[in-house]
């Protein structure tokens, strides 16, 4: 059964009350406890930080077109790659899908009126803004040049830049992340609608749940580790300084204990988005629902056991390396399982190639490449050669940009009608998706070659024989930039001029489609009761 | 039932639960699960420092031993007793709240606060004594005391000890300082609870804030129960 | 060094050939799966695309297929086991240098590489080596973490302050190859590069003895050993250095428990910088001071080179003096930590 639970249209012909027009006061946005409004606040914030991080990337890629470093000074270049990493990782990739799409969708998908702790949710956003503000302040007053990895003793003793303020900003943002994860875990456990047992949950909820587990267990470790670096710097201690008995390798262990699972924080929600889109745009229940659900949890758990693969050449014993290498292969298997299951879903489906689907299918292809190159990195003998080279950069950009950002764009387009009540222009959507796909590959595929040739990371200038591949990469970056600017324009345009969206433009199952577009503040008039499996399609849900 | 469309209005039902919950028991379960989840993050937060400390303790056992002999054992022991008592009074406060006894709740909360403040005062005295003894890393650290000739029953020190003993004290101040910060927050929370209790916000049907704050306070206590042996009782383990 | 564009790096060491072979295998496997997935996506996407007349058709839900699920877990797992084992073998082979490897010392500092040959030649940002011989690099840093990376050999190792790391290679092709610092180390990280010169053995010998003869590190180390007062104790009441290098030593560990150690570079370094870390059995009352902060990395390397040079020397007759039977400290009670 699939009764629409939107408010009945008012007889006066005025637009129905929804969470957007409930109040236009600025105060009603800045003091909101509505998870949907907080999601929109996050959406604007992460987009803002994405633009700043991208600006850094643009400048870097322009500089790298010339082997002698172009128009930038080396100090500036070093600060740019640090800020690019810090902004993109902590202020875009980690919050983007969970805090914008997740905040919006989790209560809707489980049939709740809001998250468990709405005020904590708002606090989480303010902490995010505060942390971002601190990092921007550090940027504006001289920047940081340690790399987002803050390796000691360079960061704790030798660097002359704004390390402490940056670390404090990241620390605050970490707590924002923890509060979001906490909210999700409690909501998913305690507030599911009647009849919505675990094996009926949408796969987006499974992956958000797994992500939240990682956030809760991992983020505190990096918070305290970076704090120790800040304390060491501020109070002239020697916690990680070998000249005073400290151990820089200990820092690496503690840092990567979070920062490896962090990459699963970045990719698991994206995988959840892809599961949703693939199912709806094939009009088929995902093949291997349980496999995908459990593989999300498996990735979260095993992901905590592989951090040492960042340290194969750090000077630890070879046997430590062997253990971490083996476990790193194990963690790749659940991801492979997902790729096969998504592909199998397409078989005998009814496939529609609209913008969200283009992004989702692009994700599968690019994530596959990124994941396979991860196997190269897990392989000890090969990693020694490509560690800290552009091969690693290419690998993680395939996952983060070819994966997470594509999925984020796909999810944004998929749920745009639900969130805004407007339809985006479909042709522009397809064009942008294709431009992004092509530009992305031209940017990052040459970097695999650069890395295998030996070009190290974080190099402002390089031997001239690497020039051709660098120019190719920079050319691709310009195309990729266009591919991102287009949605920025047409999505904003659609807010005013886009066609009005019906409640369920895609003919999708799922509780979020059973309420109006945009939803009313309370989400559901009456708590829905769930009686069927996820991804059960019905004829009366067809697209309007 | 419609509660109006203002997103700010925290609609309270006659069961006494916030609008996002279906009923009071769901709200209570969510709050307790939320606090346990938060405590998990705190375990990892303290855990990382404990791991770092343990690595260095293993690597520099002599220096850490020497550092531990300079700690004021009795201050730490009294503090342990004080904190354990405060957990008792906190548990009694929760019990009183569950029984709906407002004055008892307030009384036990105030006892807990007093014991917490006592702990912090003793800690402050201890820190002061450590300053006087030249044990504060970088700012007032008398390295010479760790290079002097040995007394009758001390192990033979060496010049390189001083840096490693300083490392011990870095961890001592960071770990106890972090713990003290959590105690200050806890005492602040209790002050709020006292204010809420005096205004009659709790009843036998609704005392969840007291309950989850009790969980938090017990956790802070447990952290100390780990800290004390790791730092002060080190000297017994060789 | 090839300054022309190339898509594939020079293969100039034994290890490089091994690594490339594995890479080609993995490229093949990867290509297979990429073509498979991309192909299936394109094929299914086109074959089952939704046509306007299908608007009201809902495909039947998928039938679960346990066999397929198991297959696509097991087959990739087996492939990854092959990759894992193959890669581990390469890595383990590179973990320990052959015993006849020529030892060269590398000290990294912001932003240059200082290299010391055992015969005395020193280099900055350049490393000359003979082709066809195993070479072992002992690497450390004076300040922050660096990394000594040679792409043509498919090797790199971090230079970590406070400890020694090692990497070894056997070059197979004469030529010049890039040396890169592969761990971000500050402003001029990109400038901390250099050249590896692999030479015919005869040319290498000529290079070694050419230009200004410099003092071999072992000789410089001998002078330090005397001037710093090491000889005062280590000729009589402290453990002898003769025959020490790479021998097995009975020690008491940090906890006072008996253990054995091999007197390798890291052991010698730790004895000089932290004498209490490993105390030779019978010398518990030792008063060896620490030289932490009193020696530069290069001086340390020279002293160790000197000690190494004594490894085949017979012990002088004086060293037959037994270790002192009572500790030289005023304490007459054994401390609970040092020996039971």
Write structural notes for this entry:
The complex is a heterotrimer of chains A (544), B (238) and C (340). Chain A has helices at residues 26-30, 35-63, 74-110, 118-140, 154-158, 163-190, 203-235, 248-282, 289-302, 318-346, 355-378, 380-386, 390-420, 426-453, 467-497. With 544 residues, chain A is mainly alpha-helical. Chain A has one domain (34-534): Cytochrome c oxidase-like, subunit I domain (Cytochrome C Oxidase, Chain A, Up-down Bundle). In chain A, helix 3 crosses helix 13 and helix 8 packs across helix 13. The longest helix of chain A is centred in the N-terminal third of the chain and has 37 residues, at 74-110. The relative contact order of chain A is 0.12. With 238 residues, chain B is an all-alpha fold. In chain B, a hairpin with a 3-residue loop joins strand 1 (135-136) and strand 2. Chain B has a single domain, classed as Cytochrome c oxidase, subunit III, four-helix bundle (Four Helix Bundle (Hemerythrin (Met), subunit A)), CATH 1.20.120. Chain C is of the alpha+beta class and 340 residues long. Chain C contains seven helices and 13 strands. In chain C, the strands form three sheets. A five-stranded mixed β-sheet of chain C has the order 3-2-1-5-8, with helices on one face. A five-stranded mixed β-sheet of chain C has the order 4-10-9-6-7. In chain C, helix 1 packs antiparallel against helix 2 and helix 4 (217-227) crosses helix 7 (297-309). Chains in contact: A-B, A-C, B-C. Chains A and C meet through helix 3, helix 5, helix 8, helix 10 and helix 11 of A and helix 1, helix 2, strand 7 and strand 9 of C.
Question: Secondary-structure map with pairings?
Answer:
The complex is a heterotrimer of chains A (544), B (238) and C (340).
Chain A: H1 26-30, H2 35-63, H3 74-110, H4 118-140, H5 154-158, H6 163-190, H7 203-235, H8 248-282, H9 289-302, H10 318-346, H11 355-378, H12 380-386, H13 390-420, H14 426-453, H15 467-497
Chain B: H1 24-59, H2 61-69, H3 73-98, H4 102-132, E1 135-136, E2 140-141, H5 161-198, H6 208-231
Antiparallel strand pairs in B: 1-2
Chain C: H1 14-47, H2 66-95, E1 102-109, E2 112-116, E3 122-124, E4 126-130, E5 134-141, E6 146-150, E7 155-159, E8 165-170, E9 175-181, E10 194-199, H3 201-209, H4 217-227, H5 230-234, E11 248-252, E12 258-262, H6 265-273, E13 279-280, H7 297-309
Parallel strand pairs in C: 1-5, 4-10
Antiparallel strand pairs in C: 1-2, 2-3, 5-8, 6-7, 6-9, 9-10, 11-12, 11-13
Helix pairs in contact in C: 1-2, 4-7
């Amino acid at each position: 059964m699939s009764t629409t639970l939107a408010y009945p249209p008012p007889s006066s012909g005025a637009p129905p009350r929804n969470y957007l027009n409930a109040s236009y006061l600025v105060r009603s946005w800045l003091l909101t406890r509505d998870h949907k409004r907080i999601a929109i606040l996050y959406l604007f914030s992460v987009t803002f930080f994405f633009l700043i991080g991208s600006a850094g990337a643009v400048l870097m890629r322009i500089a790298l077109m010339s082997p002698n470093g172009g128009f930038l000074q080396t100090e500036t270049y070093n600060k740019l790659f640090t800020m690019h990493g810090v902004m993109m990782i902590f202020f875009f990739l980690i919050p983007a899908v969970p805090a914008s799409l997740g905040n919006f969708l989790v209560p809707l998908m489980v049939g709740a009126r809001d998250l468990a702790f709405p005020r904590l949710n708002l606090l989480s956003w303010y902490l995010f803004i505060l942390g971002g503000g601190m990092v921007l302040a550090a940027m504006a007053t001289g920047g940081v040049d340690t790399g987002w990895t803050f390796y000691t003793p360079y960061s704790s003793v030798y660097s002359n830049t704004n390390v402490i303020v940056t670390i404090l900003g990241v620390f605050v943002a970490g707590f924002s992340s923890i509060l979001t994860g906490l909210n999700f875990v409690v909501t998913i456990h305690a507030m599911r609608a009647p009849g919505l047992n675990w094996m009926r949950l949408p796969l987006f909820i499974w992956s958000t749940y797994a992500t939240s587990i990682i956030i809760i267990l991992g983020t505190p470790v990096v918070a305290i580790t970076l704090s120790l670096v800040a304390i060491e710097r501020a109070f002239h201690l020697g916690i990680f300084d070998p000249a005073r008995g400290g151990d820089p390798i200990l820092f690496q262990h503690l840092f990567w204990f979070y920062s490896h699972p962090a990459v699963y924080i970045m990719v698991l929600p994206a995988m959840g988005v892809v599961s949703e889109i693939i199912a709806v745009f094939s009009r088929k229940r995902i093949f291997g629902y349980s496999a995908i659900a459990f593989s999300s949890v498996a990735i979260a758990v095993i992901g905590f056991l592989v951090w040492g693969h960042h340290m194969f050449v750090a000077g630890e014993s070879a046997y430590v390396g062997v253990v971490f290498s083996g476990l790193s292969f194990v963690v790749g298997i659940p991801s492979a399982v997902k790729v096969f299951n998504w592909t199998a879903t397409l078989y005998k489906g009814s496939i529609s190639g609209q913008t969200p689907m283009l992004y989702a299918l692009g994700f599968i292809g690019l994530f596959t490449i990124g994941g396979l190159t991860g196997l190269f990195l897990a392989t000890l003998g090969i990693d020694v050669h490509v560690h800290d080279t552009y091969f690693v950069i290419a690998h993680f950009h395939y996952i983060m940009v070819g994966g997470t950002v594509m999925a984020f764009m796909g999810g944004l387009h998929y749920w745009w009608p639900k969130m805004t009540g407007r339809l985006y222009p479909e042709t522009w959507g397809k064009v942008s998706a294709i431009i992004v796909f092509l530009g992305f590959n031209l940017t990052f595929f040459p970097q695999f070659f650069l890395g295998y040739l030996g070009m190290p990371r974080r190099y402002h200038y390089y031997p001239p024989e690497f020039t051709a591949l660098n120019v190719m990469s920079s050319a691709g970056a310009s195309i990729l930039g266009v591919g991102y600017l287009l949605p920025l324009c047409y999505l904003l345009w659609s807010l005013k001029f886009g066609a009005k969206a019906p409640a369920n433009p895609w003919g999708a199952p799922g509780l979020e489609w059973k309420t109006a577009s945009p939803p009313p503040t309370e989400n559901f008039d009456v708590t829905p009761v769930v009686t069927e499996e996820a991804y059960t399609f019905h004829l009366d849900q067809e697209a309007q | 039932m419609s509660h109006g469309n203002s997103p700010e209005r925290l609609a309270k039902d006659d069961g006494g639960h916030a609008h996002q919950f279906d009923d009071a028991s769901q709200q209570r379960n969510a709050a307790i699960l939320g606090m346990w989840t938060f405590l998990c993050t705190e375990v990892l937060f303290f855990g990382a420092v404990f791991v770092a400390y343990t690595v260095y303790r293993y690597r520099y056992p002599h220096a850490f031993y020497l550092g531990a002999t300079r700690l004021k054992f009795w201050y730490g022991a009294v503090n342990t007793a004080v904190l354990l008592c405060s957990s008792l009074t906190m548990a009694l406060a929760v019990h009183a709240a569950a029984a709906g006894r407002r004055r008892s709740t307030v009384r036990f909360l105030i006892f807990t606060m007093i014991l917490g403040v006592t702990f912090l005062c003793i800690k402050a005295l201890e820190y002061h004594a450590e300053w006087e003894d030249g044990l504060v890393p970088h700012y007032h650290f008398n390295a010479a005391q760790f290079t002097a000739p040995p007394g009758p029953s001390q192990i033979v020190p060496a010049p390189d000890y001083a840096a490693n003993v300083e490392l011990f004290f870095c961890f001592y101040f960071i770990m106890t300082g972090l713990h003290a910060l959590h105690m200050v927050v806890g005492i602040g929370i209790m002050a709020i609870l006292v204010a809420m209790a005096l205004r009659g916000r709790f009843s036998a049907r609704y005392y969840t804030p007291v309950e989850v704050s009790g969980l938090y306070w017990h956790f802070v206590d447990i952290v100390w129960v780990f800290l004390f042996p790791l730092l002060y009782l080190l000297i017994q383990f060789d | 060094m090839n300054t022309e564009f190339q898509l594939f790096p020079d293969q100039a060491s034994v290890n490089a050939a091994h690594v490339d072979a594995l890479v080609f295998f993995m490229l093949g496997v990867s290509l297979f799966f990429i073509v498979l997935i991309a192909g299936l996506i394109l094929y299914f996407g086109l074959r089952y695309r939704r046509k306007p007349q299908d608007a009201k058709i809902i495909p039947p839900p998928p039938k679960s297929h346990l066999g397929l699920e198991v297959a696509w877990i097991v087959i990739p797992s087996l492939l990854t086991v092959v990759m894992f084992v193959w890669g581990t073998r390469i890595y383990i082979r590179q973990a320990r240098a052959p015993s006849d490897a020529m030892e060269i010392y590398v000290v990294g500092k912001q932003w240059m590489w200082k290299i010391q040959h055992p015969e005395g030649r020193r280099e900055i940002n350049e490393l000359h080596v003979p082709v066809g011989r195993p070479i072992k690099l002992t690497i450390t840093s004076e300040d922050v973490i660096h990394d000594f990376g040679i792409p043509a050999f498919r090797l790199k190792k971090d230079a970590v302050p406070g400890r020694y790391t090692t990497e070894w290679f056997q070059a197979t092709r004469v030529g010049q190859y890039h040396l890169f610092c592969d761990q971000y180390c500050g402003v001029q990280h990109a400038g901390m590069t250099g050249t590896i010169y692999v030479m015919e053995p005869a040319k290498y010998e000529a290079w070694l003895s050419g230009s200004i003869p410099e003092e071999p590190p072992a000789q410089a180390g001998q002078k330090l050993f005397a001037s710093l007062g090491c000889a005062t104790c280590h000729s009589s009441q402290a453990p002898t250095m003769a025959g020490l290098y790479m021998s097995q030593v009975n020690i008491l560990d940090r906890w006072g428990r008996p253990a054995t150690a091999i007197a390798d570079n890291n052991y010698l370094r730790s004895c000089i910088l932290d004498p209490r870390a490993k105390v030779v059995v019978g010398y518990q009352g030792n008063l060896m001071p620490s030289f932490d902060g009193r020696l530069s990395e290069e001086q340390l390397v020279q002293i160790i080179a000197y000690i190494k040079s004594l490894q085949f020397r017979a012990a002088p007759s004086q060293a037959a003096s037994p270790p002192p039977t009572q500790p030289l400290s005023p304490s007459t009670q054994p401390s609970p930590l040092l020996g039971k």
